[in-house]
Hints:
Number of helices: 7
Oligomer: single chain
Organism: Thermoanaerobacterium thermosaccharolyticum (strain ATCC 7956 / DSM 571 / NCIMB 9385 / NCA 3814 / NCTC 13789 / WDCM 00135 / 2032) (Clostridium thermosaccharolyticum)
CATH architecture of the largest domain: 3-Layer(aba) Sandwich
GO biological process, one term: methylation
Distance between the termini: 32 Å
InterPro entries: CFA/CMAS, Methyltransf_25, SAM-dependent_MTases_sf
Structural class: alpha/beta
Pfam families: Methyltransf_25
Order of helices and strands: HHEHEHEEHEHEEEEHEE
Protein name: Methyltransferase type 12
Amino acid sequence: MYDEFAKFYDRLGWDSYAKELWPDFKKYLDKAGFKPRTMLDLACGTGTFCIGALKDGIIVEGLDISEEMLKKAVENAKSFGFDIKFHHGDMSSFHLGKKYDLITCTFDAINHMTEFDKWKSMFNCVKNHLNEKGVFMFDMNTLKDLNDNWNNIHIRKYPNGDYYISKSISFGDSAFITFTAFLKKEGRLYEEYEETVQESSFSLDAVVDELKCAGFKDIRIMNRKFDVVEDIYSLDRAFILCSI
Length: 244
């Protein structure tokens, strides 16, 4: 699953989300006075968010369901001289036998789990892997986002000749998107890769209720800049922070 993504993910610049998000999140943590010593990044992909945390002195590990993504993550970490421990596993049912101060899951990775029971299972797994007063942060595409923004065809071409086509269709609380990437080779030759994913979303009220049931407290729904918003249902992407 998602193994094709690994072949073009960083090359098409999709790692930029994590590169840009980590500094903003770190500023929020500093402002809140929370200084995590250890961190686990779920659905870590090619490891960019982990690398950002490690650069700031946090002992970090990552977990992902795609072996190819993890291979790329190892390569990326080594390119910075880092040796990060990456785990192959499912974020809805992981058992690592240790606890962390901070657990994260970003870039709407949670939406790739299309059954709400898996969200519930993930919340419980996260709680069981958090130290006392530990923090859990994740972002999710909201129902509003899937309804408003997921019926389109988008084409992007890059200066080096690469390009991709994305085609998405929404069914309300669920949506599908197909990425077809064409990576430039010599002359007029291209390598083609294609990956289709499904995303599902659920009401923010239901998500908060399940977090409470799992034992989380101080649940905050925030925007991309980690500001609390009054109208949470205006958000296309919600950032949720909570603690135990």
